[in-house]
Design brief:
This protein has 92 residues and is an alpha+beta fold. Helix content is 43%, strand content 30%. The longest helix is centred in the first third of the chain and has 16 residues. Bound molecules: copper (II) ion (CU).
Length: 92
């Protein structure tokens, strides 16, 4: 029982620690846009589970546990791909 509780608390702390970020992006029109943005966000080496949705015009990802990623770093990565950040939302 104790072990179960311990495992549960470890799992919960993981989900609490990972900051989920949603970024609204202007100018995406096709799969190439999705690929370019995904690539640049991965290149920061601070993100994980990067998913870019053409339908939503959004990028979804998490920040690695031991890293911080500022808004300007996100904007810079998206800009490098050739697009503009419209809005950044951070969710715990
Ligand atoms: Cu495109």
């Amino acid at each position: 029982m104790k072990v179960l509780l311990l495992m549960l608390s470890v799992l919960m702390s993981f989900s609490v620690w990972a900051t989920r970020i949603e970024v609204d992006i202007n100018g995406m029109t096709c799969g190439m846009c999705v690929e370019a943005i995904t690539k640049e966000l991965n290149k920061t080496d601070k993100t994980e589970n990067v998913k870019v949705s053409l339908e939503d015009k959004k990028a979804y990802f998490e920040v690695k546990k031991d890293k911080t990623l500022s808004d300007s770093e996100i904007k810079e990565a998206v800009k490098k791909a050739g697009y503009q950040v419209f809005k950044i939302a951070r969710k715990k």
